[in-house]
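queue> pop job 88
queue> type: inverse folding (structure -> sequence)
queue> payload:
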């Protein structure tokens, strides 16, 4: 399987330098990360929302090694809030954050990440939108869930992400499927050991369906993070069986992947949210997109050959 190999490469400084230096890389990266600054992204936001889509914005960058860098990440999100305020789009555009960007892995990281993310969540609430806490590798999740629980005391709309390939997630889903919760379910995109995660695609898919059923039958707001046509169809069936209206769940997909499907679901009346990343520190995010789906890797390799 190529996925684990690519994920290992995402941690390699040598591979980072090699791929970053390749002439074709930027144009391929642009497929998934359409800009480096907020100003670059504003036209994208206007275009997608104008087509009936919603967005969740991610400022890329996870390799935080100092508290000062964590503060810079916080300020980047606050600047994003300022721009969203000017656009007056409310809940049509929310934000996704990785707590590693806010210093979670540093000494005293749990408290530091909470202190840095809180003003972002507060600023988002002030303009009528919200924040979703992205899931990272399994060693970070207890901290992420604790921060999520703390933030929801004052900002109950704060969302979180759970990953189907982790054994723990079925239990997490049962706990989180409560009134007022917002939970995004994804398959998972980090290299995890067999002790904590399913390794085979069919096992992950089965777990995804079981967990999604729990969320649909619960009292919260499920967010289906998948590009898989079969899982999307199953999600619609589960929503129907659970008696959910179209505004009681949503689909989420990545910018640059299955754009026609984004528009099709929106045209059918579904809430369709596009996960849109921007920024200069794109390497880790880009490599996980390649690892998630072989078609993404084929696209990249074809581009390198054709432009080489």
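queue> result:
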């Amino acid at each position: 399987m190529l996925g684990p190999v690519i994920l290992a490469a995402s941690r390699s400084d040598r591979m980072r330098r090699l791929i970053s230096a390749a002439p074709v890389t930027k144009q391929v990266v642009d497929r998934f990360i359409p800009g480096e600054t907020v100003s670059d992204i504003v036209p994208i936001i206007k275009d997608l929302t104008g087509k009936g889509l919603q967005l969740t914005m991610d400022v890329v960058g996870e390799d935080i090694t100092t508290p000062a860098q964590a503060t810079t990440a916080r300020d980047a999100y606050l600047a994003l809030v300022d721009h969203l305020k000017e656009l007056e789009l409310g809940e049509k555009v929310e934000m996704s954050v990785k707590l590693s960007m806010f210093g979670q892995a540093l000494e005293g990281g749990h408290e530091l990440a909470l202190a840095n993310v809180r003003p972002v969540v507060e600023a988002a609430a002030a303009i009528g939108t919200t924040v979703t806490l992205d899931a990272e590798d399994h060693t970070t999740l207890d901290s992420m869930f604790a921060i999520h629980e703390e933030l929801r005391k004052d900002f109950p709309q704060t969302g979180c992400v759970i990953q189907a390939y982790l054994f723990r997630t079925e239990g997490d889903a049962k706990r989180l499927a409560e009134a007022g919760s917002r939970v995004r379910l994804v398959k998972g995109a980090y290299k995890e050991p067999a002790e904590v995660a399913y390794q085979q695609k069919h096992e992950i898919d089965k777990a995804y369906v079981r967990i999604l059923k729990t969320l649909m039958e619960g009292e919260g707001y499920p967010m289906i993070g998948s590009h898989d046509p079969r899982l999307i169809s199953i999600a619609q069936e589960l929503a129907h069986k659970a008696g959910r209206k179209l505004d009681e769940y949503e689909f989420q997909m990545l910018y640059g992947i299955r754009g026609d499907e984004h528009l099709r679901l929106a045209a059918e009346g579904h809430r369709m949210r596009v996960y849109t990343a921007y920024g200069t520190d794109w390497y880790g995010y880009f490599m996980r997109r390649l690892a998630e789906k072989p078609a993404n890797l084929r696209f990249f390799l074809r581009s390198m050959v054709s432009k080489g």
